[in-house]
Structures are given as structure tokens and as C-alpha cells.
Amino acid sequence: MAPWREFALRSGFRSSVAIPLLQPEHAPRAILTLYSAYPGAFSAADRVAFIGIFQMLLGFSLARIEGREGKTRTVAHATRQFLIGLLQHNALVLHYQPLIDLKSGRVTKVEALARLSDGDRLIYPDQFLPAFSADDLCELYRQGIEHALAQRNR
Predict the structure, then answer these.
(1) Does the model's pTM come out above 0.70?
(2) What's the burial of 6, exposed, middle or buried (CB within 10 Å: 0-12/13-18/19+)?
(3) Which label site among 34, 62, 115, 135 has the fewest CB atoms less than 10 Å from its CB?
(4) What pLDDT score does 84 carry?
(5) CA-CA distance, 148 to 31, in Å (whole number)?
(6) pLDDT score recorded for residue 140
(7) CA 62 to CA 50: how far, in whole Å?
(8) Helix axes 134-153, 77-88, angle to 10 degrees
(9) 33 near 16, Cβ under 8 Å?
(10) What is the per-residue pLDDT for 70?
(11) CB of 129 within 8 A of CB of 138?
(12) ∠44-50-56 over CA atoms, to 5°?
């Protein structure tokens, strides 16, 4: 929690609790952090009990989701910030893939494939999409449409 301490104090938070999200007998998959403006807000017996129950319910929920949808994937905060930074600094690159009518052999449409450029390296959607929030996805689509229309006009 050390990297967050200065920010938390500036924001008026005086106590926090970090809750590892895990299935019983497994390593943590993520950490949920709760903050409070009140010193010792999470140390009272009833709150400690609540946090324990909350952690257990989240662990069972995680197990249920993974049982139904497969193993979940978390993205490190630093990685998420890096990828969002690329998007915010216009690192979106579109590659075009023709869609061909098999009967006529003619190109009927063109599909735009999104990539993020990190210098000489391209980052593919399977790497950046899980890190994006709904707002980030809207920004990705906005930039993609803007790029595609500009390239079409050229």
C-alpha cells in the first residue's frame, strides 16, 4: 500500500483495509482496498467481522464465476495505466483487412483492426482490452472511427 499512502493522505483518507480476493486454499487473484476518512475505521470488532464475511463472499463469487466462465484475468495497475496512457497519447494504429466475396473474388468491405503502438512494438487487443474501462473503450472506438474516416477520405 506504500505507493498509495501519499495520495490517500492528500485525499483525506486516514485508514484503509486491503482485502485479498481469493478462493479458499488459493493465491490471491486481486486486492480490494477500502478507504475511510476516519482513523481506525476498519479496526472495530464488528467491522473486522464484516470484512471477513465480505472477503469470504467475494471468494465464493469468484469461484462461481470462474467455474462458469473460466479463470478470470487481472491486469496490474501499472500495466493498466501504461496502456491507458498509450491510448490517451494517440498510439492507436489501425490495420486493414479486406473482406472478400468468395463468389466474385471482389473486396466487399474492409475491417479495421486496432493496435496500440509502443515505439517499434505493436500491442494487440488481447493485451489491452482487458485493461480498459467502459470509458476507455468508448475513447478507443471514438479514435478508431476518427482514424478510419480520415484514412478513407485520404
Answers:
(1) no
(2) exposed
(3) 135
(4) 95
(5) 39
(6) 96
(7) 18
(8) 30
(9) yes
(10) 66
(11) no
(12) 140
| Grid cell listed for 2 | 506504500
pLDDT computed for residue 50 by the predictor = 93
Sign, CA dihedral 118-121-122-125, equals negative
Identity of the residue numbered 142: R
Q: What are phi and psi of 37, to 5 degrees?
A: -80, -10
CA of 82: how far to CAs of 7, 94, 128, in Å? 19, 19, 10
- Write b or e for each residue in 14-38: b if 16 or more Cβ atoms lie within 10 A of its Cβ, otherwise e: eeebebebbbeeeeebeeeeeeeee
Number of H helices, E strands in the chain: 5, 5
Neighbours of 87 (CB within 10 A): 19
**Nearest 5°: phi and psi at 122?**
-100, 135
Residue 26 DSSP symbol: S
User: Average pLDDT for consecutive 10-residue bins of the chain (154 residues)?
Assistant: 76 88 76 88 92 89 75 78 95 94 93 94 93 92 94 90
How many residues are there in the chain?
154
All three cell numbers of 48: 473486522
Other Cβ atoms closer than 10 A to 131:
20
